[in-house]
Amino acid sequence: xxxxxxxxxxxxxxxxxxxxxxxxxxxxxxxxxxxxxxxxxxxxxxxxxxxxxxxxxxxxxxxxxxxxxxxxxxxxxxxxxxxxxxxxxxxxxxxxxxxxxxxxxxxxxxxxxxxxxxxxxxxxxxxxxxxxxxxxxxxxxxxxxxxxxxxxxxxxxxxxxxxxxxxxxxxxxxxxxxxxxxxxxxxxxxxxxxxxxxxxxxxxxxxxxxxxxxxxxxxxx
Length: 221
Ligand code: C5P
What we know:
By secondary structure, the protein is of the alpha/beta class.
């Protein structure tokens, strides 16, 4: 793996429901293998935050303006993780003009390096249909709610486990049932069920998957 730099190109597309472990998993892959990493949900969250700051008003023009102003630095913002932002991000993600406006940033990111990992809902299907490896993360709702509650506590959000579970189910339903770019597991994706895995176990599993996939593409490095 240390010889990964010799690899010409390897791109990973990951999708999955909210709190399924995809952000943590893909972050760990990116650190270990020195790949550039994008959590595409942050783009939708960023637009949602800006809309909330704009008294809930938004239109095509505003979204275009916001999307052009996005930088990776701006995506590093605790305010993006409140329950209000999460809920609104999934509502605006149904709008074709929002998805279209955010596509550019994602395409530029993918082309910015030969080693990238991007996670979201439509990455394997729409954003990186030719990815070298596609992952699909899943996890039980109970476990997901526990994980999200822990994260909310870190940012001092006062919510109960039941409220978190309800909000997760609602958001996942919206993501799966929407007409445009719904959350789906594409045919050639590898299923990663993180329900019973510790972070370390997930990391080992993912690195092995990536290693096998690189071997398939380039042989023993
Ligand atoms: O992954 P995260 O929870 O940060 O995503 C926030 C919301 O953004 C999701 O609920 C989903 O509606 C939307 N999203 C999307 N397509 C992506 C990434 C996120 O529709 N590729």
